[in-house]
C-alpha cells in the first residue's frame, strides 16, 4: 500500500492504495466519484477522461500513485455555484448526448481541446476528439457543441 | 379561450432533453455504480477454445487466493441456474441447442463461461480467475456459414446437423403475387436477369457501457439491476427458466448506456450473478471488461445473400428471388433465428415486384451467438435490394434514381399491399427523393463526376443511392403469434395524477439513450394540458412499470407512445365525471381544452390538476364512481408502420490507393409526425454512422482457431469523430395510419439506409473501371485490389456469378477476413 494525497474536485483526499490501482478505479471505488466511467480495457475509448492539473488524461491509463500531490478534476467538479460549465450547457443545447455514457469523458476532452486551441476548425475539433468514442450520436452534434462554445468564447 | 391561455404545442417542439441534466454532470445511475453492503464481485472464467470438451476443472488454488469467497462451476448447481431461451423458433422443427449460462461438459464457442470466481473485490476476483485450471479436449470446429452448410464439421455433434431451420415465403403460394421462377424464365428469354452474391459481414453492437449486473437477494424480493434493454422480458425469463416465482423477482434497468439490440439478450452473466447472490445470500456484482463484451455479448448480421432479379429491358422489375444463409453462431439466441427472417418482408422494399420469393437457411457454428443489431434483418435486406437495384441501373445504363422511380409505389397508391403481404400505411417516395436531390446537389455532383471521369482524375467521385423503407414498431401481437414469436407486441402505460399537480407517466418501454422521458412528457403535456416540466416519466423497473415489452425494433414511440396517449385519454374521461360533479354541471356540457374542463357557453371551469387534488381528498365526489382518476392502458397496433427515406452519398475514391472519403451525405426521412425534431436528428446521425461503419470499417473477424481477432477496441475499429463528417438531414411527412399520433419509428432508419448508400457510392466511383463488387468493410486495400483485379480480368468477367463460389470476387469466406484496418 502506498499513501497518496490527491485533490479531487477541490476535496483533498489522503488514502492508502495498492501501487497497481488505476486512477479511474481510485476515483470510482475509493472516492465514489462514479461520474467518471470505464468503457474499455485498452485505453481506446476515452470514457474515463479527467483533468490532471488541468490537462486531460485517460484515467484508466494513469496510476493512482501518479496522481499523488496533484489535482484531479472530474465531470462532477466543473459546474460552479450551481451553474453548468459552458461545455455542459452546450452539450445539452446541441443534443450532443444520447445514452450519455461517453459524455463525461467527451466533455472533459472537449474542454481540454479548447484550452489548447480556442478557435478550432471543424477538422481540428474532430481530430481533437479522436481519442473519445461515442456509439450513439454519430459525433455530428458533439462537434456542433464544441464549435458553439468556441464561438461564444471567440465572440466575447 | 383566448390566445393568451394557449400553451404552445409541445409536440413538434425541439425540446431540450430532460435526461441530460444528470448525464452531463456525472450523476447518472449506471449499474456498475451500485455498491451494496457486503457486496461480492464476480469474475468469469471463459473458454479460450471454440469447441472443446471440458475434461477437468481445478478450482482449489483459486479458492485459497486472498479475498476469494467462492469459486463455482456447473457441478455446484446440479439443478441448473436457468437458461438463455430462444423466444422465436422460426419453424416447429428448428434445431435449437440448449443454451446454459454455465457450461459443464462442452463449450461451443470461445468466451463461454466454465467457472465463476467470487471475491471481495473485482480485482481479487479477476486475479483468482487466472488460477482456475481448466483442461479441455479440443474438438473440430466450424466458423463460416458456408462451411457449416456442408455438415462436415458439426458445431453441435449431438444435433447431427448445423442446419437450424429453413424458412420460406413465396408470393405465388401465399397468393400475394406471381410465380418468381416464371418471371425469371420469362426475363431470361426476353429481358434482363441480374444474379448477385452479397456478403453481410459480422458486426459487434459495441454499446459504450459494458454490461453489468447487480443482484441483491436480501429482502422479500430479489432485485436485479442490469444494463439491459429488456427488464420485463428478463424478469419473465428468469421466472420461467429458474422456477423463482415471478412475483419474487424485481428487475431494474437503471440508466443504460446504449444497446442497439446488443442488450436485448438474457445473458449467461445475468443468470450466473443471480445464482451466486442466491447461493451466498449476499449482493453480487458482475461487470464485464470490453474484451469480454466483444466476444461474449451477441454479434449481429453475418449473412450470405444470393439475389436474382428479373426486369424488362426498359427497367420494370418483374421478379425477385432471395436466398439467404444466416450464421446464428453457437446458439439460437433470443430472437436470433428470427432476425434474418424479418428480411422476408423487406427485400422487396418500395418496389412493385409482381413475383417474389424469400428463402432463409439458418446455420449453427462455433462462434459467438448472433442476434439483433440496430435494424435487425432490415439493414441486411435493404443492403441487398439497394445494391442490386444499382447493379440493374448500371446494366441498363439508367440513372439509379430514375430506375427506382420507375418501380416504386407512388404516393397515390397507399395503403399498398406488398408482394410479401405487408400493408404499407403511408409514404411519399417522390417527395423525399425530390427534396434529397436538392439538399445533396445531385445534378452538380453528377456533373463533377462526369468531368472527373473524362479527365481521368485519379480521384474518382461516386454517388450512392439508397431509397429504403422498413417495417417498424414490433408489433401487432396477432401477427407475431402467427409467426410463432414467443411474446406479444403490445405496450403498456399508466398515468398517475398526483395531488400536487404533478403527473407521473409510467411506460413499459425501457429507454437507453432515446430520450423517452422528454418525448413522452411532450405527448402528455399536450394531451393533458399540463406543463412539460410537471410530467415525470418512470420506466425500466418492473415494480414501478409492472407490465411492458421494453425497447427494440423502433417500437417505443409508435406502440409505447400510443399507449401513453390512450392512458391520458382515459384520465381525461375519468376526471370528467368529477369535474362535472364539482361544477354542478352535466358531463355532456363539459369541454376539455388545454387542461381545463369548461362548461360550454359559460365562464365556469376547473383544471384537471384541481380535479386531481379534489380526488386526493375525495371529500366530495359522485355516487357510484371510484375516488380516483389514474388510468392505465395497453395498446396493440393493428399493423406495423413503414417509414422510408432517400439517402444520397458522395464518396471520393482515390483509385491509386483505394482510399475512400465521404464528401457529402444527405438524407430525407419520412417518419410521419415528429414529436421532437432534435431527438429525431440525433437518432438519424447516430444511425448513419453505424451504417457507414459497416460499409467502411467494422468487421468481427475470427482466426482459423475461432479466436476473435477483433477482440478489443484496438482491432474492432469503431469510427471516431475524425473519421466522420457532418450530415444534411431533413424530413418529409406522411403520417402513419396505424397510431393516432401519426408517428413512425426512427431509431433504426439511419443504419438501415446508409450502408448501401456508401457502398453504392464507392462502386459508382469505380464501376467504369470494371469493378462490380467490393466486400464490406470496403477498406482501402479491398477497394484497391478490386480495381487491380477488375483491370486484370476485364475481358473474362462473367455476367452472373455462381452461387456462393468461394473463388468469386464478391464472396468472402468470412472466418478468415482480412481484418478491418482502415
Ligand atoms: S476506459 Fe477506455 S480509455 Fe479509459
Ligand atoms: S451518447 Fe451514448 S456513447 Fe455517446
TrEMBL record, chain A:
Query: Which UniProt keywords are listed?
Result: 2Fe-2S, Iron, Iron-sulfur, Metal-binding, Oxidoreductase
CDD domains (alphabetical):
fer2 (cd00207)
Q: In which pathway does it act?
A: Alkaloid degradation; nicotine degradation
A Gene Ontology MF term for this entry?
xanthine dehydrogenase activity
Q: Where is the 2Fe-2S ferredoxin-type domain?
A: 2-78
Q: What is its EC number?
A: 1.17.1.4
Q: Which SUPFAM superfamilies match?
A: 2Fe-2S ferredoxin-like (SSF54292), CO dehydrogenase ISP C-domain like (SSF47741)
Task: Tell me the Pfam families matching this sequence.
Answer: Fer2 (PF00111), Fer2_2 (PF01799)
**Position of the signal peptide:** none
Q: What is this protein called?
A: Xanthine dehydrogenase, iron-sulfur subunit
Protein's organism: Nostocoides jenkinsii Ben 74
From TrEMBL, chain B:
Q: What are the entry keywords?
A: Molybdenum, Oxidoreductase
Secretion signal span: none
Please tell me whether the keyword rRNA-binding is annotated for this protein.
no
InterPro entries found in the cross-reference section = Ald_Oxase/Xan_DH_a/b, Ald_Oxase/Xan_DH_a/b_sf, Ald_Oxase/xanthine_DH-like, AldOxase/xan_DH_MoCoBD1, AldOxase/xan_DH_MoCoBD2, AldOxase/xan_DH_Mopterin-bd_sf
List the residue ranges of the region (Disordered): 794-822
- Family annotation (SUPFAM superfamilies): CO dehydrogenase molybdoprotein N-domain-like, Molybdenum cofactor-binding domain
Gene Ontology terms for molecular function: iron ion binding; oxidoreductase activity
Where the record annotates domain Aldehyde oxidase/xanthine dehydrogenase a/b hammerhead, the positions are: 25-140
Gene3D superfamilies on file: Aldehyde oxidase/xanthine dehydrogenase, a/b hammerhead, Aldehyde oxidase/xanthine dehydrogenase, molybdopterin binding domain
Per UniProt, the ranges with Polar residues bias are 812-822
The name under which this protein is listed is: Nicotine dehydrogenase chain C
Amino acid at each position: 500500500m502506498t499513501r497518496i494525497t490527491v485533490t479531487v474536485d477541490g476535496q483533498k483526499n489522503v488514502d492508502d492504495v495498492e501501487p497497481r490501482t488505476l486512477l479511474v478505479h481510485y476515483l470510482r471505488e475509493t472516492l465514489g466519484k462514479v461520474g467518471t466511467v470505464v468503457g474499455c480495457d485498452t485505453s481506446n475509448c476515452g470514457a474515463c477522461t479527467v483533468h490532471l492539473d488541468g490537462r486531460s488524461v485517460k484515467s484508466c491509463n494513469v496510476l493512482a500513485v501518479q496522481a499523488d500531490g496533484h489535482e484531479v478534476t472530474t465531470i462532477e467538479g466543473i459546474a460552479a455555484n450551481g451553474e453548468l460549465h459552458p461545455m455542459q450547457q452546450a452539450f445539452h443545447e446541441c443534443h450532443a448526448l444520447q445514452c450519455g455514457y461517453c459524455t463525461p469523458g467527451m466533455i472533459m476532452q472537449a474542454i481540454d481541446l479548447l484550452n489548447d486551441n480556442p478557435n478550432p476548425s471543424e477538422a481540428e475539433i474532430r481530430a481533437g476528439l479522436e481519442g473519445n468514442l461515442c456509439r450513439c450520436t454519430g459525433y455530428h452534434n458533439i462537434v456542433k457543441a464544441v464549435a458553439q462554445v468556441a464561438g461564444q468564447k471567440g465572440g466575447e | 379561450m383566448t390566445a393568451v391561455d394557449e400553451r404552445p404545442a409541445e409536440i413538434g417542439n425541439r425540446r431540450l432533453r430532460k435526461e441530460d441534466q444528470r448525464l452531463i454532470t456525472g450523476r447518472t445511475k449506471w449499474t456498475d455504480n451500485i455498491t451494496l453492503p457486503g457486496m461480492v464481485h464476480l469474475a468469469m472464467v471463459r473458454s479460450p477454445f471454440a469447441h472443446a470438451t471440458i475434461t477437468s476443472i481445478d478450482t482449489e488454488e483459486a479458492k485459497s487466493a486472498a479475498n476469494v469467497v467462492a469459486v463455482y462451476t456447473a457441478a455446484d448447481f446440479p439443478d441448473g441456474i436457468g437458461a438463455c431461451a430462444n423466444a422465436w423458433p422460426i419453424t416447429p422443427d428448428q434445431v435449437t441447442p440448449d443454451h446454459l449460462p454455465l457450461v459443464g461438459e462442452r463449450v461451443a464457442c470461445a468466451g463461454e463461461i466454465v467457472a465463476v470466481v467470487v471475491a471481495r473485490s473485482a480485482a481479487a476476483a479477476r486475479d483468482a480467475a487466472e488460477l482456475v485450471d481448466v483442461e479441455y479436449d479440443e474438438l473440430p470446429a466450424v466458423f463460416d456459414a458456408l462451411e457449416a452448410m456442408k455438415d462436415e464439421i458439426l458445431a453441435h455433434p449431438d444435433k447431427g446437423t448445423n442446419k437450424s431451420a429453413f424458412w420460406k415465403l413465396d408470393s405465388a403460394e401465399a397468393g400475394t403475387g406471381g410465380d418468381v421462377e416464371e418471371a425469371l424464365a420469362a426475363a431470361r428469354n426476353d429481358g434482363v436477369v441480374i444474379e448477385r452474391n452479397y456478403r453481410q459481414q459480422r458486426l459487434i453492437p459495441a454499446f459504450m457501457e459494458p454490461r453489468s449486473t447487480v443482484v441483491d437477494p436480501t429482502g422479500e424480493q430479489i432485485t436485479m439491476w442490469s444494463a439491459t434493454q429488456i427488464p420485463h422480458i428478463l424478469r419473465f425469463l428468469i421466472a420461467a427458466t429458474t422456477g423463482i416465482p415471478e412475483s419474487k423477482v424485481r428487475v431494474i434497468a437503471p440508466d443504460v448506456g446504449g444497446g442497439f439490440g446488443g442488450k436485448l439478450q438474457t445473458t449467461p452473466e445475468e443468470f450466473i450473478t443471480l445464482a451466486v447472490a442466491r447461493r451466498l445470500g449476499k449482493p453480487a456484482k458482475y461487470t464485464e471488461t470490453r474484451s469480454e463484451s466483444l466476444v461474449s455479448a451477441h454479434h449481429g448480421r453475418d449473412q450470405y445473400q444470393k439475389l436474382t432479379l428479373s426486369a424488362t429491358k426498359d427497367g420494370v422489375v418483374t421478379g425477385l428471388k432471395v436466398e439467404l444463409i444466416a450464421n446464428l453462431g453457437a446458439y439460437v439466441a433470443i430472437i436470433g433465428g428470427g432476425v434474418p427472417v424479418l428480411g422476408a418482408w423487406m427485400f422487396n422494399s418500395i418496389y412493385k415486384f409482381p413475383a417474389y420469393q424469400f428463402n432463409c437457411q439458418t446455420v449453427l457454428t462455433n462462434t459467438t451467438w448472433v442476434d439483433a443489431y440496430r435494424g435487425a434483418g432490415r439493414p441486411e435486406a435493404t443492403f441487398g435490394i439497394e445494391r442490386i437495384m444499382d447493379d440493374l441501373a448500371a446494366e441498363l445504363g439508367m440513372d439509379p434514381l430514375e430506375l427506382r422511380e420507375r418501380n416504386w409505389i407512388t404516393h397515390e397508391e397507399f395503403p399498398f399491399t406488398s408482394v410479401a403481404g405487408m400493408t404499407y400505411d403511408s409514404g411519399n417516395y417522390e417527395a423525399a427523393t425530390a427534396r434529397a436531390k436538392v439538399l445533396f446537389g445531385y445534378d452538380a455532383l453528377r456533373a463533377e463526376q462526369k468531368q472527373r471521369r473524362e479527365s481521368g482524375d485519379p480521384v474518382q467521385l461516386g454517388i450512392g443511392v439508397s431509397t429504403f423503407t422498413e417495417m417498424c414498431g414490433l408489433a401487432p401481437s396477432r401477427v407475431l403469434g402467427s409467426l410463432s414469436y414467443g411474446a406479444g407486441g403490445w405496450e403498456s402505460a399508466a398515468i398517475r395524477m398526483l395531488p400536487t399537480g404533478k403527473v407521473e407517466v409510467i411506460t413499459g418501454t425501457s429507454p437507453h439513450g432515446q430520450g423517452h422521458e422528454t418525448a413522452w412528457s411532450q405527448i402528455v403535456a399536450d394531451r393533458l394540458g399540463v406543463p412539460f416540466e410537471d410530467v415525470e416519466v418512470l420506466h425500466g423497473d418492473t415494480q414501478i412499470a409492472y407490465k411492458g415489452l421494453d425497447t427494440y425494433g423502433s417500437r417505443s414511440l409508435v406502440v409505447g407512445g400510443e399507449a401513453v396517449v390512450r392512458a391520458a385519454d382515459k384520465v381525461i374521461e375519468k376526471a370528467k365525471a368529477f369535474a362535472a360533479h364539482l361544477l354542478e354541471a352535466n358531463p355532456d356540457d363539459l369541454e376539455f381544452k388545454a387542461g381545463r374542463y369548461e362548461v360550454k357557453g359559460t365562464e365556469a371551469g376547473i383544471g384537471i390538476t384541481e380535479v386531481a387534488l379534489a380526488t386526493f381528498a375525495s371529500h366530495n365526489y359522485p355516487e357510484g364512481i371510484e375516488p380516483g382518476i389514474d388510468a392505465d392502458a395497453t395498446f396493440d397496433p393493428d399493423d406495423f408502420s413503414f417509414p422510408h427515406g432517400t439517402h444520397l452519398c458522395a464518396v471520393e475514391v482515390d483509385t491509386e490507393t483505394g482510399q475512400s472519403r465521404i464528401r457529402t451525405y444527405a438524407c430525407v426521412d419520412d417518419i410521419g409526425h415528429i414529436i421532437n425534431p432534435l431527438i429525431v436528428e440525433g437518432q438519424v446521425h447516430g444511425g448513419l454512422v453505424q451504417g457507414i461503419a459497416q460499409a467502411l470499417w467494422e468487421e468481427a473477424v475470427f482466426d482459423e482457431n475461432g479466436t476473435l481477432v477483433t477482440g478489443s477496441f484496438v482491432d474492432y475499429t469503431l469510427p471516431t469523430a475524425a473519421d466522420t463528417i457532418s450530415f444534411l438531414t431533413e424530413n418529409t411527412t406522411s403520417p402513419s395510419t396505424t397510431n393516432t399520433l401519426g408517428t413512425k419509428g426512427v431509431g433504426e432508419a439511419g443504419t438501415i439506409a446508409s450502408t448501401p448508400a456508401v457502398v453504392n457510392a464507392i462502386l459508382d466511383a469505380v464501376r467504369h473501371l470494371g469493378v462490380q463488387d467490393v466486400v464490406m468493410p470496403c477498406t482501402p486495400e479491398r477497394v484497391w485490389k478490386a480495381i487491380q483485379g477488375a483491370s486484370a480480368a476485364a475481358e473474362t468477367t462473367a455476367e452472373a456469378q455462381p452461387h456462393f463460389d468461394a473463388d468469386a470476387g464478391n464472396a468472402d469466406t468470412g472466418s478468415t477476413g482480412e481484418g478491418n484496418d482502415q
